[in-house]
Amino acid sequence: TLHYASPSVLSPFMVYDPLRDALVVHEFDRRLVAVASDGTSTDIIQLPEAPSGLASGHDLIYLRLSNQLHYVDGDGNLLPLLDEAGVAPYVTGGSVAPLVMRHDPGTNALLLFASNEVFGAFGAWGLTTAVKIPLTDDGTQVAGPMTGVSVDVSDSAEQVVGAGRRDADGSILFVVDTNANLSETRMRLLDPVTMTTSAFAVSGDYA
After folding, report:
1. Which of 99, 111, 124 is nearest to 171 (CA)?
2. Which of 90, 116, 112 is CA-nearest to residue 103?
3. What does the alpha-carbon distance between residue 24 and residue 27 come to, in Å, rounded to a whole number?
4. What is the rounded distance in angstroms from the CA atom of residue 197 to the CA atom of residue 3?
5. Phi-psi label, residue 76: left if phi above 0, alpha if psi -120 to 50, beta otherwise
6. How far apart are CA 71 and CA 55, in angstroms?
């Protein structure tokens, strides 16, 4: 158990950073803070705005500011994740609503999960969408086009609430809150290689 007495209010965004061996937490005053296992904290950077997603990989902390991707390096510098041409920050599309981000080491890509969003050619209102953004070997630039998949989990409202463990076969478990007391396949698996989804479990009487 990690106990951290925040002087501010924590946002939903936090991720483990192997470089700092710490949990990186976003405070609502827009600071990124590294929290060690003993509960002590170190400021990393003051962000210009609140991020809408957070992930770690390549010893970098990836984040989405507005609808552009950036990263914080090991020295605490905020830098743009460059597009495939290497000339501008990569634009994800979609709104600035919070989403779930994670780096997938098996495909060396950033995965974005969201409901009711459109990322380029992928997604629509009423659908839950996952997109994959391939990265260069050092993780500082996009290496190819976005690919994605959408699924209609429920006739009710949908909102991705988490993307969790990576199974032995490389698939990613993600969970969708449908705000409905129905038996639905809210827990699903994403294959990040083929960008296909399948049902993992059905839950009922859950909102």
Report:
1. 111
2. 112
3. 10
4. 36
5. left
6. 9
Return the pLDDT at 207. 43
pLDDT, one tens digit per residue, over 162-186 is: 666 666 788 998 878 776 667 676 7
Q: Name the nearest CA neighbour of 95 among 128, 67, 62.
A: 67
Q: Which amino acid is at 186?
A: R
CA distances to 59, 83, 131, 145, 185 from 68, in Å? 20, 10, 14, 15, 31
What angle (nearest 5°) sits at the alpha carbon of residue 77, between those of residues 148 and 161? 35
Going from the C-alpha of 136 to that of each of 7, 92, 141, 186, 192, the distances in angstroms are 37, 17, 6, 33, 16
Contact 100, 160 (CB under 8 A): yes
Residue among 56, 5, 77, 65 at smallest CA distance from 35: 5
**Of 85, 59, 83, 87, which is closest to residue 72 (Cα–Cα)?**
59
What's the pLDDT tens digit per position in 36-80?
988 898 999 999 998 988 999 999 999 999 889 999 999 999 999
